[in-house]
Amino acid sequence: MSDKPVSVPTHAHGPFQELVGYETLTEGDRPYLRLPVRRDLLNPHGVLHGGVSLTLLDAIGGRSLVGQLVPATGQRILSSVTVTLTTDFMLGVRDGVLFATGSPDHIGKTVAYVSVELRHNAMDGPLVARGLGTYRVYTRSLVSPV
């Protein structure tokens, strides 16, 4: 895949998304996040702060669940809340563009498990970080005005 997939902005995550500056996009029916690396996202060592990686992995994990069916009920997931997120950091980056993707591994009645990845400069670029998230899922929206 190239670093410029055909995509459409979707599903805003609120003020924190605006602060960090990532975009929520889709390719086909698969959501992904895109974030250009900026100086204000770097740690004192001059590489991307780990919290930025965690933010992107967490956000795409939850976003990848929205619209999925809960097998036991046939209802669609409208919201999720993170229970745990385990992360491995592989590559320090100083510039470029980050792409985060998530793939649900298992969806139960109330809990789902999602594998997440963060890649550098392309959707299939070098692996920056990966993780496994556990999410509490809801068939009603928890979104409220901020």
From TrEMBL:
One of its GO terms (cellular component) is cytosol. One of its GO terms (molecular function) is 1,4-dihydroxy-2-naphthoyl-CoA thioesterase activity. Belongs to the thioesterase PaaI family. This is PaaI family thioesterase. It comes from the Bacteria. The keyword Oxidoreductase does not apply. The keyword Acyltransferase does not apply. SUPFAM superfamilies: Thioesterase/thiol ester dehydrase-isomerase. Pfam families: 4HBT. InterPro entries: HotDog_dom_sf, PAAI_dom, Thioestr_dom. Coiled coil: none annotated. Residues 45-120 form the Thioesterase domain. Keywords: Hydrolase.
